[in-house]
Specification:
The complex is a heterodimer. Chain A contains ten helices and eleven strands. The longest helix of chain A is centred in the first third of the chain and has 34 residues. Chain B has two domains: about 290 residues, Up-down Bundle (Cytochrome C Oxidase, Chain A); about 240 residues, Cytochrome C Oxidase, Chain A (Up-down Bundle). Chain B has a two-stranded antiparallel ribbon with strand order 1-2. In chain B, α4 packs across α8, α6 packs antiparallel against α17 and α11 runs antiparallel to α13. Chain B is globular, with a radius of gyration of 25 Å. The chains are: A alpha+beta, B mainly alpha. At the A-B interface, α1, α2, α3, α4 and β7 of A face α4, α8, α10, α11 and α12 of B.
């Protein structure tokens, strides 16, 4: 009996299990928020866990105690007439109400603090130095990061200079994706024919992986990108490297790039000179009904992916 | 042909070709062989024991709410096993396909499932578990129990009840058919938009998903109407509103949700159908469509659907915990108020399923607070169950163990739910497996309630004991497996693993994924114990008294076990909230009626079954675009409805002498017994 609360209440057992499994918490990316935005999120998580524990832990313990104390064989005091108590019934409404009120205030404040469009925690930083603008376009199933001011674009690699705030506009040429870098950038949906925004700060150098969190079809599991937060100097070097790419990002080049492609080995490539307003063009095209249909072979037969997904090389 | 579709089409077979049969996929061949063998054994047994006529007369054409409920539950349990098999394959694929060097078998590059097959499996897992396992089982339980709890002879509309069952069954058959003919949807159980549009899902998978849900949800909506009317109109004398058992209260609230929510789903899927079949642009990204409209409509149904499932579960706990605490439920009135508060708020929270869809912070904040408000009445319920235990005399039969485990699952699901309700937190775990672990706590609490209810009411309905030894083993293995799988899954959420991955690119997740797989093995053991529990119970057939537990409190335990097909020989007069407990306290539980009266019963009908099968053909014709089949089935349904509406069947009567005879020999009136053919009343007799 006494084991049951632990077995059945997963959260209570998470720390225990972590210890047992000998896991390095370095794998627990949400435990180590890098950006201020992610730090607010993690703080809110801990706060919420704490305040909910104020009610969940006593209730869990009390239920366990009652189960033990009032088992029939214990012959404890038995009072079958007790089924109503005005005071207690007011209390059981009042306690959750208080907790929910506190959580509600925290919710509103933190939601404004990490609002992907204009996070309150970054207002000062944004005022001090204008953020780095990046346009993000997802295709089936790759990421295209366009740096309008640097006049370069990168496939499946996001490089940002440390110390800058990054402001993104996101859209999709095909289906809905969800931009996410755990510990750095909050999730935001990426939808065709629409523009969403995401803002985060990149205080110190880091190399990590970002990905789509929202399922987008057969190549979804291979849809990661590399994140590199680097010193300004390295960023400039990287921009120069990308700018030297022989491939020019015209709209025609984009329409070829946007054909369904599983970038199985997450091969990184670069484009120079993206057409101005490419982002707006892609949004407009989707609104005008441009789609990149997934070939029959990828979807109509279960065995069609025999020998692996369509490789990047095969479609280029 | 209204829209351009990829692949061949012929007038006779529509899109169906020999290539639609997945004979080149070993997993499906093996599954088909298994299903075929089981099917042949069942058909063979029915023929060998010459039970075909019995099945037709007593089950397939029945309008008896108990038999319909039992068939709902059997359907749900079969689909539960199917859904579990899907879950097992998801977990096994993720345990195998870790990192770029992981081996692949059976045509997959990593693991044993190519992505497109994996995507179908996880989509089917959700669809099956929510709509074809949990929903039918809970509908079945309310069908069996609610009329008994309120002292009714049957449901308000027995014929419509049978129709609901067969429409749900038609949907379930379509889902199963997609295993062996064509594909199932690979766009998630929620139908991720615009992935479900023709350019991105050109096959028949989305159509299977869409029509299976559409047809079965008509059944669910009809059932909701039936339940509401039954509870309002069919209560026994003395059963005033505030004497209703809490399970009946929760059934009422849940079906109000069902009646109002399912039509929204019908519209959401109907508009998707217009896009896919007629080339409309309701949800497309371009040409004036709005894909966010679908997401909103789906969750305007989808969130109430969650409470549609969880409220009956709360009702079940509210019946079982008092019985095994030998005390009335603490705070009955607040419990009823909390039930309706949850039902009411359930309408105002749908947006929390897509906080990341870039609504502003104030909109997200509104839905965040609305969502957290659900925590208040839910908290009240937990407190009330807790105080019901206080100063009780607790015994731990399996129904009680399942209920208590359900409370702990609710606490775990509740704390994580409150976390997810805060947008700032949600932005870091939305669409991660943390969410999956959270809602599995909730649906497994519903699962715990279902198993609690099955073990609680099985002896009542069938008149025999449910084997307790294997039942206990089933419970402990199931709960242990739940702990192992979902603790690991919460951990993976913090590691940043997202949902629906056919291939695991981060090897750091391996330890937790393998832990989950170990938990899945334990689930297999628990299913073995469940099967053995049923086998031992049916083998030994130990009869039970009217109240198998000795401490039950509500009206359904007043009549005999097994419950006679006419429920109560004489409609009971209700004197108190917990009627049976009141009679026990006053020494009245053994009283017999002075005299029997004529009992008026509805006649069986084959039309619900026929309409169900036609609805399946209707769906199949639409899915494969076989227009003649679609048209013929639709015409058939219209004709069947017309025939039924001219049918002046007035039901039949059982004379008091026969009732008296059956009351003396209960086996002749139980759920398994075959009834003699009875003549319907003529109009003259009815007057």
């Amino acid at each position: 009996m006494r084991l049951k609360p632990i077995l059945a209440n997963p959260l209570l057992a998470v720390p225990a299990l972590l210890a047992l499994s000998g896991c390095n918490t370095g794998d627990y990316r949400l435990f180590h928020p890098l950006s201020q935005v992610a730090q607010v999120q993690w703080w809110a998580t801990l706060f919420e866990l704490g305040i909910m524990s104020l009610i969940i832990v006593p209730v869990t313990v009390l239920i366990a105690v009652f189960i033990w104390r009032y088992r029939k064989s214990a012959n404890a005091k038995y009072d079958p007439s007790w089924s109503h108590s005005l005071g207690l019934e007011i209390l059981v409404w009042a306690v959750p109400l208080v907790i929910v009120t506190i959580c509600g205030i925290v919710s509103i404040r933190t939601t404004h603090a990490v609002d992907p469009y204009a996070p309150g925690v970054l207002a000062k930083a944004e005022a001090a130095q204008p953020p780095l603008d990046i346009d993000v376009i997802t295709t089936d199933w790759q990421w295209l990061f366009i740096y309008p001011d640097q006049h370069v674009a990168a496939v499946d690699e996001l490089v940002v200079p440390a110390g800058r705030v990054v402001h993104m506009r996101l859209t999709s040429s095909s289906v809905t994706n969800d931009f996410f870098i755990p510990g750095v950038a909050p999730m935001i949906d990426v939808m065709p024919g629409m523009r969403t925004e995401d803002t985060f700060d990149a205080p110190t150098p880091l190399s990590d992986t970002g990905f789509s969190a929202d399922f987008s079809g057969a190549g979804f599991s291979w849809m990661q990108f590399e994140l590199h937060i680097v010193p300004q100097g390295d960023f400039d070097t990287w921009v120069a490297k990308a700018a030297a790419s022989p491939r020019q990002l015209t709209y025609t080049a984009f329409t070829q790039f946007a054909q369904p492609t599983v970038n199985e080995h997450a091969t990184i490539s670069y484009f120079a000179n993206p057409t101005p307003q490419l982002f707006e063009t892609v949004v407009g095209a989707a609104q005008a009904g441009v789609v990149y249909p997934v070939p029959d072979a990828l979807t109509t037969s279960v065995a069609s992916l025999e020998g692996g997904p369509v490789s990047a090389a095969a479609t280029k | 042909m209204q829209v351009a579709i990829q692949g061949p089409w012929s007038p006779l077979f529509g899109r169906l070709t020999l290539a639609s049969i997945p004979y080149h996929t070993p997993i499906l061949i093996a599954t088909f062989a298994g299903v075929a063998v089981i099917g042949l054994v069942i058909v063979g047994a029915v023929l060998y024991y010459n039970k075909l006529g019995y099945l037709w007369r007593e089950w397939i054409t029945t309008v008896d709410h108990k038999k319909i409920g039992v068939m709902y539950i059997i359907l749900g349990l079969v689909m539960l096993v199917r859904g579990f098999a899907d879950g097992l394959m998801i977990r096994t694929q993720q345990a195998m396909a870790i990192g770029p060097n992981s081996p692949g078998i059976l045509g997959a590059q990593h693991g044993f499932l190519p992505p497109f097959h994996f995507d179908q499996i996880y989509s089917a897992h959700g669809t099956v578990m929510i709509l074809f396992a949990a929903t039918p089982i809970l509908t079945g339980l309310t069908n069996v129990i609610v009329p008994l709890q309120i002292g009714a002879r049957d449901m308000a509309f027995p014929y419509m009840n049978a129709l609901s069952l067969w429409l749900t069954t038609a949907g379930a058959i379509l889902v199963m058919l997609s295993l062996f003919v064509g594909d199932f949807s690979a766009a998630g159980w929620v139908g991720l938009i615009p992935l479900t549009e023709l350019p991105y899902s050109p096959g028949v998978g989305v159509d299977y998903w869409m029509w299976a849900i559409q047809i079965s949800s008509i059944g669910t909506t009809l059932n909701a109407i039936n339940m509401i009317v039954t509870i309002i109109k069919m209560r026994a004398p003395g059963m005033s509103w505030f004497r209703l058992p809490v399970f009946t209260w929760t059934t009422l609230s849940t079906n109000i949700i069902g009646l109002t929510a399912f039509p929204v789903l019908g519209v959401a899927l109907g508009l998707l159908g217009a896009d896919r079949y007629l080339g409309a642009h309701f949800y497309t990204a371009g040409l004036g469509g709005n894909l966010m409209l679908y997401t909103n409509l789906f969750w305007i149904w989808g969130h109430p659907e969650v409470y549609f499932l969880v409220l009956p579960a709360f009702g079940i706990f509210s019946e079982i915990i008092p019985t095994f605490s030998e005390k009335p439920l603490f705070g009955y009135t607040t419990m009823v108020a909390a039930t309706f508060a949850i039902a009411g708020i359930s309408w105002a929270v749908w947006l929390h399923h897509f906080f990341t869809m870039a609504a502003g912070p104030d909109v997200n904040g509104f839905f965040s607070i609305a969502t957290m408000l659900v925590g208040i009445p839910t908290g009240v319920k937990v407190f009330n169950w807790m105080f019901t235990l206080y100063r009780g005399r607790l015994t731990f039969a399996t129904p009680m163990l399942w209920s208590l485990a359900g409370l702990f699952l609710l606490l775990a699901g509740g704390i994580t739910g409150m976390m997810l309700a805060i947008p700032a937190i949600n932005y870091s775990v939305h669409d991660s497996v943390f969410v999956i672990a959270h809602f599995h706590c909730m649906v497994l609490l519903i699962g715990a309630a279902m198993f609690a209810a099955v073990s609680y009411w099985f002896p009542k309905v069938f008149g025999i004991q449910l084997d307790e030894r294997n039942g206990l083993m089933f419970f402990w293995t199931f709960i242990a497996a739940t702990g192992i799988v979902f603790i690991a899954m919460f951990a993976l959420g913090f590691e940043g693993e997202t949902r629906r991955l056919a291939y695991i690119y981060d090897p750091a997740w391996r330890p937790m994924l393998w832990t989950e797989e170990a938990g899945m093995m334990l689930y297999i053991v628990s299913i073995g114990y469940f099967a053995r529990m049923l086998y031992v119970s049916l083998r030994d057939r130990i009869p039970v008294p009217a109240d198998p537990w000795g401490t039950s409190r509500t009206l359904e335990f007043l009549t005999h076990s097994p419950v006679p097909f006419y429920n109560f020989a004489v409609t009971p007069q209700v004197n108190a909230r917990d009627e049976l407990a009141w009679r026990r306290d006053h020494g009245l539980e053994k009283t017999q009626p002075d005299a029997f009266e004529v009992i008026h019963m509805p006649c069986n009908s084959a039309i619900p079954f026929i309409i169900g099968m036609l609805a399946m053909a209707f769906g199949f014709g639409l899915i494969w675009r076989i227009w003649w089949m679609f048209g013929a089935a639709l015409l058939g349904i219209v004709i069947a409805v017309i025939i039924r509406s001219f049918d002046k069947n007035l039901g039949y009567e059982i004379q008091p002498e026969e009732v008296a005879a059956m009351e003396r020999n209960l086996a002749t009136a139980g759920i398994i017994a075959e009834q003699p053919a009875r003549k319907p009343l003529t109009e003259a007799e009815a007057h």
